[in-house]
Amino acid sequence: MSGNQPGLTRAQLRTPKAAAIAGVLFSVLLLAVFWLMRLSVPADPHEPGAWLKGGVTSVVMALNLVPFAGVAFLWFVGALRDRLGAREDRFFATVFLGSALLVLAMLFAAAAVVGAIVNAFHVTPDALIDSATFHFGRGLAFILINIYLVKTAAVFMITTSTIALYTRLTPRWLAIGGYVVAVVLLIGSYYFDWSLLVFPLWVLLVSACILVDEQAGRAT
User: Fold this and answer.
1) Dist. CA 217–CA 137, nearest whole Å
2) C-alpha–C-alpha distance, residues 163 and 169, integer Å
3) Hey, where are the domains in the chain?
4) Which value, in Å, is the radius of gyration of the alpha carbons in the chain?
């Protein structure tokens, strides 16, 4: 029994359900992060910082959820690569993994900037409000999320959709829809506030399709 246990554990980790559950968890956590941030932080990057005086409880909660969302996304990416196995193309695999890591890097960097702003406000509240330092950090976080994170996520969507078309990882309509949405994000992410929600919602759809396909395969 003990000699077969590693193989059984490996088989359990390879199941598509691992990727689906991790994707759903990442989507829910990231949507919660964006929702909590929007409760306190205005969308306008040029605002003077009055939200800091109104309380930052929701912001702190969002920042604490970011690491868990990052771990779930890493699990999602790893489970997808494991499911592809020998069918994985080296070129697309490199872009797929690289863009995923860049998404996490931008997300963590933006969260660190916002956390630094909150900490600086607690130390010197009167000096930070409407200061050059605040506007620098606020603008940096806005650019990291609305430009670099969203556009890198669009590259991840394009690569994943390409892999999905060749390997039938997801339904064809979802892969083609990923192309369309990714192109829109690449062009207009700076102008649309809702662009932040597209990526986690798309991952949620992919995860749901994988879970449904896995359940159908078991039933068959």
Assistant:
1) 49
2) 7
3) 5-219
4) 20
